[in-house]
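EI: anyone free to look at a 234-residue chain?
SC: sure, send it
EI:
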Amino acid sequence: MKSLIIQCFQHVPYESAGSIEDWCAERGHQFIYTRLYLNEKPLPGSDYDWLIIMGGPMSVHDDHIFPWMKGEKEAIGQAIKAGKKILGICLGSQLIAQVLGAKVFKNPEKEIGWHTISFTDTAIKMFSLEESKKQMKVFHWHGDTFSLPEKSVLVASSKACENQAYIFGNHIIAFQFHPEIKPKNIDLMVQHGHKELTNGKYVQSADEIVREQQYFEQSKLLMFHILDWFSHKE
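SC: here you go
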């Protein structure tokens, strides 16, 4: 396939695209951060092929605190209308859901740390995943969740949060969890978000989070697998 120009909306400096950048480098695609927290302006639609929207500690309802968020939502809406391929992670998945008309609200439980998700049968078939991957431990850091956008398809859930991932048409995929996570990302998120690591049924301690080294490789393989699938969808 042709080399892609992939724009990435970044909300805070310590939440990078992790293994997505690795995938772009290995597949020969150009990766460009738009650092919204520095008031960088989104690229016009003619200047990029895909849009990646990262996570962050803010809420989709914080337009009054982060003035750039209004422009970000407008850019997401334009990308959807133009039929761009869009991938959202955590806050990114919530922003896409809101722009598509769904509600974003507090989840009954915070979900922080390594917790199991279950892929639907549809996801296993769609992504050509092995049955052994139907349940996987992945990394989470969120207090909000969303209702499913109309006409979207749920593809993953967890005990703490039903709506963990959805597909919208063939051009939008969104994850509440963090399949892109790498050790450096974990260290920075724990450093900046340690005050959120309070008692909770689905909240791990910093030590527990950092100790779970064995799940990084399977997260990377999942991210690469889904990005390869996504890149071949028409």
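EI: The chain has seven helices and nine strands.
SC: 👍
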